[in-house]
Write a structure and sequence with these properties.
9 helices, binds aspartic acid, 5-stranded mixed beta sheet, alpha+beta, 37% helix
């Protein structure tokens, strides 16, 4: 590199560093945590506790959703989740830091905390996504115990019931899913997000939804904000819904407007939108938040408060 281009590059890098520093310094108030559904209340409490005790915003989002993953009564996140149509629980998760780092692990069997594996992918590998047997091997090599495949009593009962009623066809409706997506912003304006799920109940073995897909189920950028989705993953992947929300905020939308835009895009691209549910949450670097859904009934946790989002339909 000649001296002139070296100076130009250095000046450009310095300007970028200054603008990022301005972004972070311009904000600075209380931490903000939002997460999907009622189970977000317990997750938010753990995420806020992590922030208050000096943890990073990435620690906060991981510890938050770990609570949901470990809840033995939860039928849509973690090993107690409902299985695929073959009776096998497969789990998906991703994590993203607002500085652009991301990790994802999906189609996992017997891994109690997919979010921690996703974080390991982010921090210990040059990759973003590991899948199935390879991801499980990477987990074991890094000290994570893989549990034998087993259904909880409640999941087994529900699956057996489904087999008799649904005639072994995968079903896509508005009831059988409830991922946790959690977004956090610390007092310095740094943001991160985590998303983890057992996916659509009674899916075809091998199906992966939006939840572990960076840009679909989750997207975070410290320069702008973050967004996360829950609901029918196929519709969220097709529209890159979290990316839409973040990019709308980049060009001036509030988090609420951004969520509404993303939901409207799903409506526009799906003639059958009345048949399924999607909910989306967003936060921005100023500490504002938004929430919206296709249909009524999407609840979310805002710090320590449970709220219900507005809906398109
Ligand atoms: N988005 C998840 C999926 O499609 C389901 C959910 O939100 O519960 O796998």
């Amino acid at each position: 590199m000649d001296r002139r281009s070296f100076i130009a590059t250095s000046v450009g890098a310095a300007a970028l560093a200054t603008s990022l520093a301005d972004t972070i310094a311009a904000v600075g108030d209380d931490p903000l945590v939002v997460s999907t559904w009622d189970h977000g209340m317990a997750a938010n409490a753990a995420a806020l506790a992590a922030l208050v005790s000096g943890g990073s915003v990435v620690d906060a989002v991981e510890r938050g959703v770990m609570v949901t993953e470990a809840d033995p009564t939860n039928l849509s996140v973690g090993l107690s989740g409902l299985p695929d149509r073959d009776g096998i629980v497969t789990l998906d998760a991703c994590i993203m830091s607002g500085d652009g780092r991301a990790g994802s692990a999906c189609f996992l069997q017997g891994i109690a905390h997919p979010i921690s594996l996703a974080r390991m992918v982010m921090e210990k590998t040059p990759h973003v996504m590991l899948v199935g047997a390879g991801a499980e091997r990477f987990a074991r090599e890094n000290g994570i115990t893989q549990k034998p495949n087993a259904l909880s009593a409640e999941a087994k009962k529900a699956w057996e019931q489904w087999l008799t009623e649904k005639k072994y066809k995968p079903v896509i409706n508005i009831e059988n899913h409830d991922t946790i997506g959690l977004l956090a912003r610390d007092a310095q304006g740094r943001m991160a997000g985590a998303c983890t799920t057992s996916g659509l109940a009674y899916k075809i073995h091998g199906r992966v939804g939006d939840s572990p897909i960076i840009g679909a189920g989750l997207f975070v950028d410290d320069e702008v904000g973050g967004a996360t989705c829950t609901g029918l993953g196929e519709s969220v992947i097709r529209t890159s819904a979290s990316t839409i929300a973040v990019e709308r905020m980049r060009y001036g939308a509030t988090p609420q407007e951004a969520c509404e835009e993303a939901i409207k895009r799903i409506v526009k691209k799906h003639d059958n939108w009345k048949d399924f549910q999607v909910g989306i949450l967003a936060i921005d670097k100023q500490g504002r938040y938004g929430a919206f859904a296709l249909h009524k009934g999407f609840t979310y946790a805002l710090n320590k408060e449970l709220k219900t989002a507005g809906a398109y339909g």
